[in-house]
Design a protein that fits this description.
There is one protein chain. The chain has about 210 residues and is mainly beta. The longest helix is centred in the C-terminal third of the chain and has 10 residues. It is globular and about 55 Å long. The chain starts with 5 loop residues before the first strand and ends with a strand.
C-alpha cells in the first residue's frame, strides 16, 4: 500500500485566560493552566484545519502539549484537566476572561463551550513532570466530535483546557517562546478520504495559544 502522507501546518493561536482580571495573555511565551490563590487559568488554542479535505473522516485525533513548569500546593493530588471545543474562535492578542476579542464578549466568562461535552481529559501531577526539562502530555480526543466540526466546514478548531479545583498549575510552551521550533502545541489527525484505502496524517501546530 501507499505510505501515509504527512501534512505540516503552522500553529495558529494560543492564549491564557485569567479569571482575576480582564487581561490578555495571548502574547506570552507560555500558556498557563490551573489555579493559584485567586487566579483560575484556562489555556486556549486554535488550529487552522482548512487544508483537511472536506470528505475526510478522522480515525484518530490527539493533542500534544509540551510542559515546561509545574507547581502543586497539595502534593500527591493530581490536577484534573478537561479539553473542550470552544463554540467560537478568539483573537490571540485580544482574548481575555471576559472577551473572545475586543468586539465580541464571551457569553460565559472564561470561554463558551458545553461543559457536558468533553473532547478529552487528563490528570497531571509531580510524578509526571521530570523538572528541568520539557515533558509531553498526549491527550486522545473524541473523533466523533472532531468529525462533526469538519463536516460543519469550520476553518479553525478552537480548544480550551479547563482545570479542576486543585490548587496547582502548569505552563505549556507557546509559539512565542521558540517561533521556529516544532516544540509547541500540536494537533495530530489521522484521516481517511472517501474511496481511499489508505490513511493520511495531518499535523497542525497551533496558530494561536
Amino acid at each position: 500500500g501507499i505510505l501515509p502522507q504527512k501534512v505540516v501546518f503552522s500553529q495558529p493561536v494560543e492564549a491564557t485566560s485569567v479569571s482575576a482580571g480582564a487581561v490578555s495573555r495571548g502574547k506570552q511565551e507560555r500558556v498557563y493552566v490551573g489555579n493559584r490563590d485567586k487566579f483560575h487559568m484556562r489555556g486556549m488554542f486554535s488550529f487552522l484545519i482548512n487544508s483537511l479535505p472536506s470528505n475526510a473522516t478522522v480515525v484518530s485525533a490527539t493533542l500534544r502539549l509540551f510542559v515546561v513548569s509545574y507547581e502543586n500546593f497539595s502534593p500527591g493530588v493530581p490536577l484534573e484537566v478537561g479539553v473542550h471545543q470552544l463554540d467560537k474562535d478568539f483573537v490571540e492578542e485580544e482574548v481575555s476572561w471576559e472577551r473572545a476579542s475586543t468586539t465580541e464578549q464571551w457569553l460565559n466568562p472564561g470561554g463558551d463551550f458545553s461543559s457536558g461535552e468533553l473532547l478529552g481529559s487528563f490528570e497531571f501531577n509531580e510524578q509526571d513532570f521530570g523538572g528541568g526539562s520539557i515533558d509531553t502530555i498526549v491527550v486522545v480526543l473524541d473523533t466523533l466530535a472532531v468529525n462533526q466540526l469538519i463536516r460543519s466546514g469550520e476553518e479553525y478548531f478552537p480548544l480550551v483546557l479547563v482545570p479542576g479545583v486543585q490548587d496547582a498549575w502548569f505552563s505549556i510552551v507557546g509559539r512565542e517562546l521558540a517561533p521556529d521550533s516544532p516544540v509547541a502545541s500540536l494537533l495530530d489527525l489521522t484521516y481517511r478520504v472517501a474511496g481511499s484505502t489508505t490513511n493520511a496524517a495531518l499535523e497542525r501546530r497551533a496558530k494561536g495559544d
